[in-house]
Amino acid sequence: MKLITKILIIFILFSCGSGSSEEEANITPSQPKVVDIDPHEVGTLEKTIFHEGLLRNFILYVPESYDRNTATPMVFNFHGYGSNAEEQMYYSNFIEVADDEGFLVLHPQGTPHPLTGSSMFCVGGFTRPCDIDDVSFSNYLINVISTLYNLDAQRIYSTGMSNGGFMSFHLACNLSNRIAAIASVTGSMTPETYDE
């Protein structure tokens, strides 16, 4: 089973277009502007940050077992089109797994689609004409969380349902320098993801 998982991860990362390395080079860490986060908080934390002119919401789950002296993995858990971070948190039930395995779970909140108003992540394809840079937002969230918690930079993962799965593929192709692996649930890649 481990061999199949490794082959799948390699396939996903190499299925991305060749242009992503230039984009990765343009993503530079910035000093995050954090709204109301205490690095000693554990449990389910509903938070807001300011990024690229927008207030963006997310839910961070920090297990009670978190030890700030130990580098800790983190999993992005993206919601589907029309859903939200809270629904995804309950739907996926990663909190129990995070408690057992000792990792942080980050549930970002998407933005409204410009035509339908449905909450989503901009990945091209069916999310057009969206102009929000959710790759930059995800990178920014990593920067924010890593300034407050002891993240293991080699073990940051992404998963998601439907549009959240598309977003995970989008990160695998456009933020592969920070995302170790992904697992998508019913999401694939838009042409914009694999052509970049």
UniProtKB/TrEMBL annotation:
InterPro entries: AB_hydrolase_fold, Esterase_phb, FaeB/C/D. Its main location: secreted. Coiled coil: none annotated. SUPFAM superfamilies: alpha/beta-Hydrolases. It holds the Pfam family Esterase_PHB. It is found in: Secreted. The keyword S-adenosyl-L-methionine does not apply. One of its GO terms (biological process) is xylan catabolic process. It comes from the Bacteria. One of its GO terms (cellular component) is extracellular region. GO terms for molecular function: feruloyl esterase activity. Keywords: Carbohydrate metabolism, Hydrolase, Polysaccharide degradation, Secreted, Signal, Xylan degradation. This is Esterase.
